[in-house]
Specification:
The radius of gyration is 17 Å and the shape is globular. The chain is built from three helices and eight strands, in the order E-H-E-H-E-E-E-H-E-E-E. By secondary structure, the chain is α/β, with parallel strands linked by helices. The protein folds into two domains: 6-73, Signal recognition particle alu RNA binding heterodimer, srp9/1; 86-141, 2,3-Dihydroxybiphenyl 1,2-Dioxygenase, domain 1. A four-stranded mixed sheet has the order 1-4-3-2, with helices on one face.
C-alpha cells in the first residue's frame, strides 16, 4: 500500500495562495471542522488569537484522489528557484493536436487568476509553459 502525501507551501498569504491553487486545480478550500460554520468560528472557539488568523489554509481534491495542499504562513519571502515544483497536466486528456492550444488557453486563465507566465518550452514533442503562482512558486503547465 502506498503512503499518502500532503504538499506544503510556505506563503505570505496562505488563504490567497490556497484560493489560487483551488482555482488552478479544480480543488476546494478545506471546509471547517464539523460543527463549525467557518474557520474563524473554530479559531475563536479553540483560542487562536486574531493575529494568527490566516496562518494556514488548505485545499482538497473534491474527488479525494489528489494530495491535500497546505499553505502555511512564514515571515520570510521566497528568495530562490524552487527545488521541487508541480506539473499541472491540463493537456494530457486532450487529443495531441489540440494540446498546445489547450495549454495556452489554460495559461491565460491562470494569469487572470494571478499567475505569471515565465516562458514556454517544447522538447521531444512535449509542450509546456513555466508559470509562477501569485507568490512566485514555479510550476509547469503541460
Amino acid at each position: 500500500m502506498a503512503t499518502g502525501i500532503q504538499v506544503t507551501f510556505d506563503a505570505a498569504d496562505p488563504d490567497g495562495l490556497a484560493r489560487f491553487w483551488a482555482t488552478a486545480l479544480g480543488y476546494i478550500l478545506q471546509p471547517p471542522p464539523e460543527g463549525y460554520v467557518s474557520w474563524e468560528e473554530w479559531a475563536t472557539d479553540v483560542g487562536i488569537p486574531p493575529e494568527e488568523e490566516n496562518s494556514m489554509s488548505a485545499v482538497l481534491d473534491p474527488d479525494g484522489d489528489g494530495p491535500r495542499l497546505l499553505f502555511q504562513r512564514v515571515p520570510e519571502p521566497k528568495t530562490a528557484k524552487n527545488r521541487v515544483h508541480l506539473d499541472v497536466n491540463v493537456g494530457k486528456a486532450v487529443p495531441e493536436r489540440q494540446r498546445r492550444t489547450h495549454v495556452d488557453a489554460e495559461a491565460q486563465r491562470l494569469v487572470k487568476a494571478g499567475a505569471t507566465q515565465l516562458r514556454a518550452a517544447e522538447e521531444r514533442g512535449e509542450y509546456w509553459i513555466v508559470m509562477a503562482d501569485p507568490e512566485g512558486n514555479e510550476f509547469c503547465l503541460q
